[in-house]
Amino acid sequence: KPMIQLKNVTKVYDNGTVGLNKINLDIKKGDFVVIVGLSGAGKSTLMRSINRLHDITEGDIVINGESITNARGKALRLIRRNIGMIFQSFNLVKRSSVLRNVLTGRVAYYPTWKSTFNLFSKEDKQKAYEALQRVDMADKVYSRADELSGGQQQRVAIARVLTQNPKIILADEPTASLDPKTSRRVMHDLKMLNEEFGMTVVANLHSIELAREFGKRIIGIRAGEVVYDGAVENTPQEV
Ligand code: ADP
Ligand code: ADP
């Protein structure tokens, strides 16, 4: 069974704009899918629909066998625990340390929010440290998040998502604010999550070059519709 399934999904915004138009997609476990398309094509709408950050207008979205379309409350939280998010703007707590950012990300999915640093167990801290080692950020554990470069912040966000151990990673324009070299480094770390931890990755990218280099499957969207879906080798020059 697919990890993510979209069945005839349409999203019409309140003002009448069609964000997605009858999208059908099956994304299998362990895939690395890159979504490409021009600004306004519907990439973010697709991401927000999969994580149910908004209601869809028609159709159904199934995550790891569970429909998320009408899920609320506890059921929704349980489904969302399968999904880790990576954002364009990193979404770290700027004035907190790197270690603390990774630790609080880990508990954010659980009902009891541990508000005091000392309440984190030695084991939690060890796991956070190991995740930071995986992205080469272990020497920055006590740096404040806002002292880091953009690429470093994104790698901390990747360590944070790694400790959450989700089945799916949704990365919404993870490299949009980064230069090409740093972007490749961040994509390399997402690839690590995919290959070494078996996480299913869905990433929106502006750059077709990065999409070809890192994607196993490329989905092109235009005006809310899938216009290309296939292997990297046959990707058209433009979508
Ligand atoms: P991007 O193209 O990088 O995805 P946008 O500039 O399209 O970003 O959107 C930024 C934010 O503005 C999003 O949260 C989106 O929901 C919102 N937005 C985009 N277009 C509209 C619109 N026509 N009306 C209201 N909100 C919009
Ligand atoms: P992309 O991420 O590919 O840039 P979006 O998914 O942000 O595209 O937007 C798809 C379409 O939906 C665009 O026409 C955009 O203006 C519109 N849109 C996005 N968010 C909103 C919103 N909150 N309200 C109204 N229209 C929106």
Automatic annotation (TrEMBL):
<protein>
    <submittedName>
        <fullName>Phosphonate ABC transporter ATP-binding protein</fullName>
    </submittedName>
</protein>
<feature type="domain" description="ABC transporter">
    <location>
        <begin position="4"/>
        <end position="239"/>
    </location>
</feature>
<dbReference type="GO" id="GO:0005524">
    <property type="term" value="F:ATP binding"/>
</dbReference>
<dbReference type="InterPro" id="IPR012693">
    <property type="entry name" value="ABC_transpr_PhnC"/>
</dbReference>
<dbReference type="InterPro" id="IPR027417">
    <property type="entry name" value="P-loop_NTPase"/>
</dbReference>
<keyword id="KW-0813">Transport</keyword>
<dbReference type="Pfam" id="PF00005">
    <property type="entry name" value="ABC_tran"/>
</dbReference>
<dbReference type="InterPro" id="IPR017871">
    <property type="entry name" value="ABC_transporter-like_CS"/>
</dbReference>
<keyword id="KW-0547">Nucleotide-binding</keyword>
<keyword id="KW-0067">ATP-binding</keyword>
<dbReference type="InterPro" id="IPR050086">
    <property type="entry name" value="MetN_ABC_transporter-like"/>
</dbReference>
<keyword id="KW-0918">Phosphonate transport</keyword>
<keyword id="KW-1003">Cell membrane</keyword>
<keyword id="KW-1278">Translocase</keyword>
<dbReference type="InterPro" id="IPR003593">
    <property type="entry name" value="AAA+_ATPase"/>
</dbReference>
<keyword id="KW-0472">Membrane</keyword>
<dbReference type="InterPro" id="IPR003439">
    <property type="entry name" value="ABC_transporter-like_ATP-bd"/>
</dbReference>
